[in-house]
From TrEMBL:
Keyword match Transmembrane helix: yes
Transmembrane segments: 20-43, 49-65, 85-107, 152-172, 179-198, 210-226, 233-250, 256-274, 286-303, 309-331
Superkingdom as given in the UniProt entry: Bacteria
Record has Zinc-finger as a keyword: no
Domain (Acyltransferase): residue spans on this chain: 13-328
Lineage: Bacteria, Bacillati, Actinomycetota, Actinomycetes, Micrococcales
Organism: Agreia bicolorata
Keywords annotated in UniProt: Membrane, Transmembrane, Transmembrane helix
Pfam families cross-referenced by the UniProt entry: Acyl_transf_3
InterPro entries: Acyl_transf_3_dom, Acyltransferase_3
Protein name, per record: Acyltransferase 3 domain-containing protein
């Protein structure tokens, strides 16, 4: 039977297409929230946005572990990771604070921009940890008022996962790396399950989020480490899908579905005939970081008129595409040119 390594082509795969779909799913999931309709449809507390974020972390775990093992030094690896997420992140903060927030005040004359708050929005969040989500006196009449960019909160945990796998590879012998990742996955799963069963057990929200998101990242990393041993099987992916759905129904997707989710997205990335999507121009990250502010502006442009939520979701995805393209062409792609070349070629073109 063929393994993941046999069927996954690092240079030609469908992971970029899957990430684009996941980013669109996050936008769709938030369509209920920004319209004041509460939470999106869920299965046992699991909504499309949670599944999408889990998929992002699983894919990152696979690709980033590959990147670290191919990097000549920890410094070069961290430099590449920094260039992939941080420049576009900081530009997104500036664009919200000094372009979109003032634009919202022009659309809604009852709003105004507090420039001090706009500056603090950038400075407070510049460390990747989302500490301020508002620009004062803007979006005051929106159904979900004041808040500009909720999805950015996950990037802090993404960066922590990058750092952990980077240091782990530096400290642990290669032959023991799989064992170390299994242990880390077990710890993350145990903590996430503890938080689920006993909410009072949660000491720090940061720890809960890191445990739950880290479990999906670890699962993806493990699939890379054992890619030559894990079969790529239609039967196994069917079992993984059924298991993920069952766990979601039982309200256990977040703490227990990491391996099933990681296997599902990696199988799809290997098998789907979408290798051309995003191969040269990957706008998935831009879709993720600009989707929510675009939706908030769209609410203003519509003047509070309620579109059917499905139509609003489609309009939101379409309206985010231009900003995502600008992010890729103006920030992300130029930043990637600054990466130092490792002595070994970087053959995976879809590394996040």
């Amino acid at each position: 039977m063929k393994t993941i390594d046999d069927v996954f082509d690092p240079a030609r795969n469908s992971l970029n297409a899957i990430r684009l779909l996941l980013a669109a799913s996050v936008i769709v999931s938030h369509s209920w929230l920004v319209n004041g309709l509460g939470l999106p449809p869920m299965v046992g507390g699991t909504d499309p946005g949670l599944v999408a974020v889990a998929g992002f972390f699983a894919i990152s775990g696979y690709l980033v572990t590959s990147s670290r093992l191919r990097a000549s030094t920890l410094r070069s690896y961290l430099w590449r990771r920094f260039l992939r997420i941080y420049p576009a992140f900081i530009v997104a903060l500036v664009v919200v604070a000094f372009v979109l927030a003032p634009l919202s005040a022009l659309i809604d004359p009852s709003s105004k921009v507090d420039w001090g708050s706009a500056g603090l929005y950038v400075l407070s969040n510049a460390g990747l940890y989302l500490r301020q989500v508002t620009v004062e006196h803007t979006l005051i009449n929106n159904a979900f008022p004041f808040v500009w960019n909720v999805p950015l909160w996950t990037l802090f945990y993404e960066a922590i996962c990058y750092l952990i796998v980077g240091v782990l590879v530096s400290l642990v012998p290669r032959r023991m790396l799989g064992v170390a990742l299994v242990a880390l996955l077990a710890v993350c799963t145990a903590l996430s399950m503890s938080f689920h069963l006993w909410p009072g057990f949660m000491i720090l929200p940061i720890l809960e989020n890191l445990a739950s998101l880290g479990s999906f990242f670890c699962a993806g990393a493990l699939l890379y480490i054992y890619r030559t041993r894990v079969p790529s099987s239609g039967l196994l992916v069917a079992v993984a899908i059924v298991l993920a759905l069952l766990l979601a129904t039982l309200g256990l997707f977040k703490p227990l579905a990491a391996v099933a989710m990681a296997y599902g997205v990696l199988y799809a990335g290997s098998r789907l005939p979408l290798t051309g999507v995003g191969r040269r121009n990957d706008i998935s990250y831009g879709m993720y970081i600009y989707g929510f502010p675009t939706q908030q502006l769209l609410i203003l442009v519509l003047g509070g008129a309620m579109l059917p939520v499905w139509l609003f979701a489609i309009a939101s995805v379409a309206a985010t595409i231009p900003l995502a393209w600008l992010s890729w062409l103006g920030v992300e792609k130029p930043a990637l040119r600054l990466r130092r070349r490792d002595r070994r070629p970087d053959s995976i073109r879809v590394a996040p």
